[in-house]
Structure to design on (90 residues):
């Protein structure tokens, strides 16, 4: 990790996966991030386990994650969502 801390790029060997398990009790639903996520390479997928909300971002091109690319890259969404839900199921 010292290379990354010094600003040198480092390739991740495995994707990062996480789940937000704490309810957000205030604010509008649309302002809340989906519950589970995977980051693999340039892609970051956020989604609710029931697929009620799916967001795909190309992180190097959109650091602020303002553009949802899920409709443009359905094959990426399918791959990442399957891996994410498999991980979540244990």
């Amino acid at each position: 990790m010292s290379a990354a801390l010094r600003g040198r790029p480092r390739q991740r060997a495995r994707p990062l996966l996480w789940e937000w398990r704490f309810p957000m009790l205030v604010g509008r639903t649309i302002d809340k991030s989906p519950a589970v996520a995977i980051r693999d390479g340039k892609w970051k997928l956020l989604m609710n386990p029931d697929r009620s909300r799916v967001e795909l971002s190309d992180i190097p091109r959109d650091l602020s994650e303002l553009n949802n690319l899920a409709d443009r890259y359905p094959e990426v969404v399918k791959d990442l969502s399957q891996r994410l839900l498999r991980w979540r199921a244990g």
Q: What stands out?
A: The chain is about 20% helix and 20% strand. Helices lie at 2-5, 74-89.
